[in-house]
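Tokenise the fold.
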Amino acid sequence: MSKKKALNGDMLYLIFDTANMHRWNDHLRTVDLTELDKQAHKAAIAWVLGKYEETEGGAKLDWRKIIEHSLFSFIQRSAMTDLKPQVFHRIISEKAEEVNRYVVDCFDLNVPDADPEFRSRLEGYLRSEKRSKEDDIIRAAHYLATRWEFKTVYDANRSMYGIENTKKEIDEQILQHMDLIGVKKQMDDENTFDFIDLIGQLRFQQRWARTPRIPKTTVLGHSLLVADMIFLNDFDTKADNRQMYNNYYTALFHDLPEVLTKDVISPIKANVDGLAHLLESYERELVQSKIMPLIPGSWHEEIEFMVFEPFTDIDNGRFGRRTGKDIKSCDLMAAYIEAKASVSYGISSKPLEDGVKELRKKLRASGAGIGAEDLLDQLDRVLR
């Protein structure tokens, strides 16, 4: 019997399925807002807040805790469906033990072959008081991502009963975290807001844009799926904390340049001679001119490390090790789930069917580092 792993097909589908959870669905929305995208934006904002605490506040953060607890809170939220925030938090505060048991039961039902250590850490997180600096950062990122979403629906819902109370509640929640340097920056510094807003714009860019597909997924949601996947793989392989950090945030930000260029589909890159190199050069220019001015200079080298050539293996003297080839395998696996899920739901097309075949071929050839062969078999059972 094979060893149970944190990275398995059921776990991947649990994360991916939150693309079917729509947020603010009792409001008029100009764009779909899903739980997967919200959690992706939250993860990116948490990085921004954490970097400010480190570089300007001198904090020594446990980044593995931020990554892990973000995923655990994501799992909790996926089990509690799309409750209004005030209802969700009241239930959590008044029925904590019962809710924790329910979340674990849901997790066991959906991921029956979870790694025992991962499951144990999830239970420990749910029972904890969550009073660490890292948990404060995650909570603040949650509210900032909610505020960003609310701003997209506010103008269209000004006449709706209770909309001003909702605005007030969100602002009050953020004000409770003004002790964090990054929260104050987000509220007062236009550049800091613009960087977070720029990341959020990846929630507007659809994956497989020319192909009808269910559920529709975005570039940012896709990036979180890749990031969580590489983290789960690093969890299984007992990678050190620095590699976990490098891999996770490289995966989360690997498509950041697309907010400036939009996506160019792989067949065009592959078949138009010299286009891939031209795009890479242009992306570098745009990142330097458009993104770097929005963040502190001390972060520039690390952002470059993450977004330029993210799929290369590297052991950097300053930043440490990154297994870029495994991140690429996770990127391909996320694309496979996106295509395979739609086909299994009954929304298919030649591009999707061809994509499934081509992605399987690539993963079998180069995905050994993440156990792609087993994951494909598991996902085929999940997505029958």
Summary: The chain has one domain: 9-382. The chain has 19 helices and two strands. The longest strand covers residues 313-316.
